[in-house]
Amino acid sequence: MKAYELYTNVKSSIISDLFMWMRDTDRELYKNALASLAANRKMRLPYLQKKPVAEQIEWMHKTLKLKTSNMMAEHILQVYFMKGQEAMLVTFCDALEIPHDGNGQVETELPETLDADKLKAAVDALLEKNDPALVALYLHTFNLQTPAGWDELSNTLESDSRLKLG
């Protein structure tokens, strides 16, 4: 699944939380995301900035569902999970024994394959502490980090009923 397709399938409340986190923690990042999406749609930023925040977020969500927004869609998800959901990254990397800096930033190359048993333990650990839809979004985003994804993770995402996006 491509990044823009994730925005089509995920609960809108998760996207609202993502952008509210961005707006609350890093206004410049929020403004840059809004500006980039506006430029992509050939719109003027001041026009969007005059709208209430809820409408801005709704418009960004709608725009990120477009194929032309795929690169920006993936980048926003990466930033959110790297900075806003560090605990998920740490839990996942620890369970899979992927070396990281303590904040989830991987220190080596990502593995070529994922151990099925460790992956199951990682998924279970994530689901214990987080909204299943958020976990599903994270795992789909992680699976985008290699061109074809990981077969083990793709199979888990398809077969585990707890990992539905919507």
Walk me through the structure:
By secondary structure, the chain is mostly helical. It has two domains: 3-84; 86-163, no CATH class. 68% of the residues lie in helices and 0% in strands. It is built from ten helices and no strands. The chain has helices spanning 3-9, 12-25, 27-40, 45-49, 53-64, 70-84, 86-96, 116-129, 132-143, 151-159. Helix 2 (12-25) crosses helix 3 (27-40), helix 2 (12-25) packs across helix 5 (53-64) and helix 7 packs antiparallel against helix 8 (116-129). The model has no long low-confidence stretch (mean pLDDT 93).
Give the low-pLDDT segments: none
Content of β-strand: under 5%
User: Helix count, per DSSP?
Assistant: 10
Order of helices and strands: HHHHHHHHHH
Supply the helix-strand structural class.
mainly alpha
Major sheet size, sense and barrel closure: none
Let me know the average pLDDT: 93
Task: Please give the alpha-carbon distance between the first and last residues.
Answer: 14 Å
* Computed CA radius of gyration, to the nearest angstrom: 16 Å
Overall geometric form = elongated
Number of domains: 2
Helical residue percent band: 55-70%
- The beta-strand count equals 0
Entry summary:
By secondary structure, this protein is mostly helical. It has helices spanning 3-9, 12-25, 27-40, 45-49, 53-64, 70-84, 86-96, 116-129, 132-143, 151-159.
